[in-house]
Amino acid sequence: MAPSAIEGRARRLRQEIERHNYFYYALDRPEISDAEYDRLFNELKELEEKHPQLRTPDSPTQRVGAKPLKEFIQVRHPLPLFSLANARNEDELRSWHSRVSKILADRGIDFAETALVTEPKIDGLAVSLVYEQGRLSRGATRGNGEVGEDVTMNLRTIRAIPLVVRLRPGERAPAVVEVRGEVYLPLAAFEKLNQERAAAGKPAFANPRNAAAGSVRQLDPRIAAGRPLNIWCYQIGYTEGLELSSHWQALEWMKKHGFRVNPYVERHKSFDEAVAACRAWEQRRPEFDYDIDGAVVKVNDYGMQDVLGVVGRDPRWAVAFKFAPSTAITMLLKIGINVGRTGALNPYAIMEPVEVGGVTVSQATLHNEDDIHRKDIRAGDWVVVERAGDVIPQVVGPVIQKRSGKEKSFRMPEKCPSCRSRTVRPEGEVVVRCPNKSCPSQIVESIKHFVSKGAMDIDGVGEKLVERLFRLGLIENMADLYYLDRDGLVGLELSSSVNSKGKLVPHRLQEKSVSKMMEALEKSKQRPFHRVLFALGIRHVGSINAQLLATHFGSMEALGVAVREDIASVEGIGPVIAEAVRDFFAEPHNQETIRRLRQAGLRLSQKPGERQERPLAGKSFVLTGKLASLTRAEAREKIEALGGKVSGAVGKSTDYVVAGASPGSKAKRAQELEKKIIGEKEFLRLLGE
C-alpha cells in the first residue's frame, strides 16, 4: 500500500474503533462481536508497529502503555468542583426546596414552574476531564475541589472515557470543555476483586468507592487498566467556545458527543415529581450493578443557578438526597452453624450490631466452609458487612490491618450441632452435611418448607409456631399438622415477655388464630399434586421439576416405584435429580409420611391430561442484564414452564422487566412505559424458588 493509503487506513481504523467503543461502553448497544472488534484493534496495532509515525496520542492502542509514575502532580481545576449539601430525609429535602424558592422569590423569580433534574448519586470517585480542541488533555481527581491530582494516564485506560470528542460531519469541537463524572467499579467486579485480594492475603476494600479510588490512584497505569472501571458523566464545568443555558442541555450535549450519561436521569416539572423520583431510586437500588448512595436534585436553569450561587463550598442550586449506607465495618464475635432441611451445615456470622442499609444487623451469611477459608475470615475479626436493599447481609471480607493476633480460624464441626451425628462432606461438594434423616433441625426446617407460601401455603402456621409445636412434641413431621387436636391448641403458650412492671406475661394461641389455622390446613388439601411433591422438600426438586415429574408420572405411587433410569429420562430432570428422588423414596420414614398425607386427604395424583397450575399464565416478561443464579436460557425455560412468555422488546403488553446486573436500554424503555421492573430476588419469588 502507498504511504497515503496506509495513513488513511490507520485513520479509518481509529475512527471505527472509537465508534464501537462508544456504542459498547456509552450506549450498551454493541454492533459487532468481540472477535470482530479484536480484529480491527489488532490490525491498527500492527500498522502502528510497522509505521510508528502513524501512532497518535489519541489512538485506541495508546490507552495503556505509560511507565509507572513516581508521584502524582497536583493540578488546579479551571472551575471548583463543589461538594453537595445533604438531605438525609424527605423533610430536609423539602426544607432545601423552601429555601431555594424564597431566594428566587426575593429576586422576583417564580420557582414553582421551574424544571428540576434528578440523577443517581454514584458512590465512586469524582473526576474532571478537560478536552482541548476535542482531545483529552488532562484528567484529574476532585481533590479538595480546587486542586486535584493529575491521573490522566489512569483515566485513559477506561474505555468508556472518549479520547476524542465525538463530532458530526462539519462540526467543530469547543476550544475547551471540562466534563465531570464519577468513576466507579461495578458491583460484580468489586466482589471478584475482593475475592482475589483475600486469596492473596491482602486487605479487602470496604466498599466499591474505595476500590474505584484505589484503582484510579495507582502509580502504575497497568494496574488501573486491569480493573474494569467505568464512568457516568454528570456535568459540564468550564468551557470555551460552548454556550449552554441549562443542565439538561449539558446532559444532552454530552450524550450526543460520546460521553456516558446515566439513562435514568430525569427532568421534572414539579418538586413532588422530583421527590417521587428520589424515593424510587432508593427502592430500586438493589437492581443495578453499581452502588448509589443517594439521588441528586438540581435546578435546571443556569441563570437561576447563578442567582442562587454558592454558600461555603456547597452550591445552593443542588442537593444530595442521601440513602442509608449499604456497607459497614463491625466485629465478628462468633461463627454459628444452622442445619438446613437437607442436612446442610450453614455457617453464619454473629456480629456486634451495626446499621447497614438503614437496618440494624447482627447476623450475616458466610455461605460455606471453603468461602470462609478463601476470604480468611476468623472469629474476632473486624469485617466488612454488605447489605444491598433487602438482600440478606453478607460478610465481604476481613479488615486484616486491624487484627490483633487473637483471632481464631474456623473449622467445620465434626458432629452435627443439633443431633451430634458425625458430619460428612460428599465428594465434589462444598457443603458439609448431617446424614441423620431424624435430625431435629432437619425435621423442623422441612416442616417450615412444607407450610411456606411457595409450597402448601398454609396461612397461620409460621416458623415460630412450627418450632414451638415441635418442641412440645405435638408434631414430629409435616403429616402431623393434619392430625392436630383443635381443643389442645387453644390457649397454647407460644412465648412470653416482661411487661413494664417486670412481670412475665405469657402469649397464648387464641381461638380465632386456631380457627384460621385449621381452615388453612383444610384448604391446603386441595393443592394440586405437583405442589405437594414440591412441599416434600426432596433435594434438587424445585417447583418446576415437581411439575415435570407430576405430569410425567401422574401420581405419587407411580413416582415412588419408578427406577432411576425412568426418572432421569424425563426431559429437564437428569441423573442427579433422579438419584435424589430415588433416595427420598427409599427412606421408610418418608414412605410413612406420604401414607399419612394420603390418609389426611391430600391430592397425591392427577388425572391424565389435567391442566397444571400455571401461575404466570398470560404474563409477558422481558429479560435484561445478567442474572447471578440463572442463564438467560434457563430463566426463559422457567417462565414458559409456569405459563408465561418471554419477549425480546419492551412494549405495551409487557408485564415484568427482569433486570439483572448491568441492565441495558430495555430497562430505560420500561421506565418510559411505566412497566414494572423487578430484580433477581423478586423474580425468583415469582418462580416459587
SS summary, helix count: 24
The secondary-structure class comes to alpha+beta
Share of helical residues: 25-40%
Low-confidence stretches: none
**Intertermini distance:** 62 Å
Instruction: Give the percentage of residues in beta strands.
Output: 15-25%
Number of domains: 6
Just give the CATH class of the largest domain. Alpha Beta
The CATH H-level superfamily of the largest domain is DNA ligase/mRNA capping enzyme
Average pLDDT over all residues: 85
Describe the structure.
With 689 residues, the chain is of the alpha+beta class. 36% of the residues lie in helices and 20% in strands. Strands 2-13-10-3-9 form a five-stranded mixed β-sheet. The chain has a five-stranded antiparallel β-sheet with strand order 16-15-14-17-18. The protein has a four-stranded antiparallel β-sheet with strand order 5-4-7-8. Strand 11 (310-311) and strand 12 form a beta hairpin. Helix 1 (3-26) packs antiparallel against helix 2 and helix 16 packs across helix 17 (543-553). The radius of gyration is 30 Å and the shape is globular. The N and C termini lie far apart (62 Å).
